[in-house]
Amino acid sequence: MTAPLHEAHPSGRRLPDTQQGMRRRNLARVMHTVSAEGPLSRAAVASRIGLTRAAVSTLVDELIRSGLLEELGPERPGRVGRPGSALAVSGRGPAGIGAEIGVGHLAVCAVDLRGDIRVRAVRHGANRGRSPESVTGELTELVRQVVADAEREGLWPAGLAVAVPGLVARDARTVVRAPNLDWHGIDLGALLPGELPLTVDNEANFGALAELWLGDGTPQDFLHVSAEIGIGGAVVVDGRLLRGTRGFAGELGHVPVRPEGPECVCGGRGCLEQYAGEDAVLRAAGLEPVEDRVGLLAGRAAADDEAVRRALRGAGTALGIALTGAVNLIDPETVVLGGALARLAPWLLPSLEGELRRRTTRPACAVTVSRLGPEGPLLGAAHSVVRGVLDDPAAVAGRS
Amino acid sequence: MTAPLHEAHPSGRRLPDTQQGMRRRNLARVMHTVSAEGPLSRAAVASRIGLTRAAVSTLVDELIRSGLLEELGPERPGRVGRPGSALAVSGRGPAGIGAEIGVGHLAVCAVDLRGDIRVRAVRHGANRGRSPESVTGELTELVRQVVADAEREGLWPAGLAVAVPGLVARDARTVVRAPNLDWHGIDLGALLPGELPLTVDNEANFGALAELWLGDGTPQDFLHVSAEIGIGGAVVVDGRLLRGTRGFAGELGHVPVRPEGPECVCGGRGCLEQYAGEDAVLRAAGLEPVEDRVGLLAGRAAADDEAVRRALRGAGTALGIALTGAVNLIDPETVVLGGALARLAPWLLPSLEGELRRRTTRPACAVTVSRLGPEGPLLGAAHSVVRGVLDDPAAVAGRS
Do A267 and B359 touch (CB under 8 A)? Predict the structure, then answer.
């Protein structure tokens, strides 16, 4: 997938419109081109981005010096002209460190500029009710361990991105509300290691970005819906996350489905989460909450348990009603079901798609199922750092 | 209001990232600066946009030659240095021609680069059920009359933008569905005069753009809701319209409010339009449809007609439920009520805001009332042409 050449930097900052800015953008174009299509010779890069070979050589030399590109040695003979050296994105150099604070686990990984996961660490254990200090202390340990392992492989951390199950302010540091951790107004920037550039975001946002960057044919306009304990949503428009004024966009879980329905933790009534959240589905099926809620539901549904299947049909109907409103407002190309919803999709989709078909302008918006599943948020976090390097290589050059 | 310097052209096209593209962008920066803050001397423009005075002079000379800027004569004496000539946006030169096909009227206007309405023409009469050929024939006559009047004032038409009460495809020509005109799949590009660059868009979209460009302190992120026969909605994010994959984004009227509610023309049930559309409110108040529905409702409500007030409260509740979903998904800074809703706001707002307060994350999204009212779509259409000229002056230079 080739990135749009004029894509804004993920931080929302645009490179300045000067000669210097143009050089930085051209460095990014070289990186994106080699990343998407490499290995490539200098001449091939030049022809793809429409610059002279001399201009590209200068840019490439700078990227090699900074450890972002590497030369694979002379191209195979038999070609016309002087043999060039094939360029590839470096498997050493900068790495993105992704982390996830889940309700029941902590995870950290290091992804290199090629997109390969090079180090990974997970710790299971309930985080709900633990103090933010205790959780971030354990996460910091895990991050340092992953960074040390990555450094042994010749990588250096370009930044840390942390996925959390809650609303994050636009400062990309503050967890405004994470009801399933019982965290409110926590500044993770003050609690996590200061040595790396830090970005904190909602796990549904990172899941959607992972879908955009790593998904199989995911379009540039889609609505991503996932579920763990709550329902997470994220809106991608023209290949960019819709963040909203406060950073809260995509809160599909609190769209009213039946306005006089059951009370919700948010203070509203009849929100989607009251019909399609994991606990609501368990309740509707007459089951007690367990650790692996999704495993239980999927297992029983696969074993033809009619109460579970009926509960999942009901959840699909509620999802279809909420998604009808969302599709009318946003007109996405597809709706992508991720996380736990991906695993439960066989039993949710018939009623969900039925509602969408009945209620929206034909042809109804397509619904697809993510192949990343619960890995999405962690991968999206790590890749957001990698994308930041590809989008502005000049910002990290010389930092190694 | 200063436009963001790197704003994409309204057509979605970005200027190319070359020397030539940089020159074009700098021409746009000069135009936007003089437009927002003029009259200004060349030196003042140079200091505001961070270019040398020599570079700005070259750009300004080109804009004067093309009739986009004019010199007001020497600045008042008493300043240090050689007296400069103050620059202003030209009141001659290019004009934006805006047009509106309403259910009950046709309107056309010409707006100059300063934003002043210079010519205006309206014809009343029902368009519902008339053939597209007949309506566009009459509109073409009206456009030619307005253009002739504008030309007598030294203006020339830079383009024609037409607002229609229906869904428009992303080709900005084809009316996919305008139920209140009974039009389906009509290519207005083939029916309207070919001599002017043409843009067709949904009236709610143009209404939202008018609010963005001409409103009083309207933020860059808002949801615009208007009503005539149907309910129109438009979403503005970072100062740009959210269009959606098919061009259908913002369809608030068909968000389900009560999923088992009355059948809707869209095929769904319990859509917002079934509770807050003009005909629905008349029905709820026990009134027969008349020509001036909004006038009737506003008059009776002001005269303390309890049935009408109750019907409007119900409409406000339904709007509040639908807007709760929209605010959760999009997280706008404000919701702006425009068109007929602006006039009915005193009786809609209490129940509407009550629902929003109860159902959304505090602090609840602010709701404001548009001061443009029913003029919005026509003004937005004309100004969209004017903004196109300001955003890329090089594209019209020499066309006069």
Answer: yes
Q: What are phi and psi of A18, to 5 degrees?
A: -135, 175
Same-domain check for residues A221 and A364: yes
Q: What is the per-residue pLDDT across B239-279, written as a single tens digit (0 to 9) for each?
A: 999 999 998 999 999 999 999 999 988 889 999 999 999 88
| CB within 8 Å of chain B, chain A residues 124-183 | 167, 177
B 22-41 → A contacts, CB under 8 A: 22, 25
- List Cβ neighbours of A289 (8 Å cut-off, separation of 6 or more): A279, A282
> A5 and B25: CB-CB below 8 Å?
no
Prediction ipTM score: 0.86
- pLDDT (tens digit per residue) in A205-253: 999 999 999 988 899 999 999 887 789 899 999 999 999 999 899 999 9
A191 and A266 both lie in a single domain: no
- How far does the CA of residue A195 sit from the closest CA of chain B (Å)? 32
- What is the CA angle A78-A84-A90, rounded to 5? 125
**Which residue type occupies A381?**
A
The CA distance from B309 to B297, in Å, is: 9
C-beta separation of B75 from B42 below 8 A: no
Same domain as B296, residue B221 = yes
Residue A1 has pLDDT above 70, yes or no: no
Query: Closest Cα to residue B109, out of B294, B389, B384, B354?
Result: B384
Question: Which class for A398: exposed (0-12), middle (13-18), buried (19 or more C-beta within 10 A)?
Answer: exposed
Q: How many CB atoms lie within 10 A of CB B350?
A: 13
B400 falls within a domain: no
A109 falls within a domain: yes
Domain of B381?
Answer: 94-208+377-395
Do A358 and A385 have their domain in common?
no
Report the C-alpha dihedral over residues B241, B246, B250, B256, rounded to 10 degrees: -160
CATH number of the domain encompassing residue B33: 1.10.10.10
Whether B36 contacts B363, CB under 8 Å: no
| Chain B positions in Cβ-Cβ contact with residue A359 (cut-off 8 Å) | 254, 256, 266-269
Q: Residues 66..125 of B with a Cβ closer than 8 Å to A: which?
A: none
* Residue of A255, A272, A319 to mutate for B, most B C-beta atoms under 10 A: A255
